[in-house]
Design brief:
The structure is a single chain. This protein is of the alpha/beta class. It contains four helices and four strands. The chain has helices at residues 8-15, 31-37, 52-62, 83-93, and strands at residues 2-5, 20-23, 42-45, 68-71. The chain is globular.
Length: 95
């Protein structure tokens, strides 16, 4: 499972949940990102809460490259480790 996030710190937090964090360094999905993510069976888009419209657009865009694309709606920036967000990430890691 790859979890797409905005920054490196968030990717490290995701990695602590036994998942692969993929930092975009912003909210733009490049062709290189799509190519890299295509190797995963599942991609979860977990951008910051203020980027929800971009998150939904990105999920639609990735569906042509990754078999299972999901959206994780966050309470806060994942790097701040809100308990609800961490529980949801850990549930993904338990798959």
């Amino acid at each position: 499972v790859a979890v797409v996030v905005e920054d490196c710190v968030s990717a490290v937090v995701v990695g602590g949940c036994r998942l692969r964090g993929v930092a975009l360094l912003g909210t733009t999905l490049t062709e290189q990102n799509k190519q890299y993510l295509s190797q995963f069976s599942t991609a979860v888009i977990a951008l910051d809460p203020d980027a929800l419209p971009k998150t939904l657009d990105m999920a639609r865009e990735l569906r042509g490259h990754v078999k299972d694309v999901q959206v994780l709606r966050l309470t806060d920036d994942i790097k701040y480790r809100h308990p609800d967000d961490m529980a949801n990430l850990n549930n993904l890691g338990d798959r």
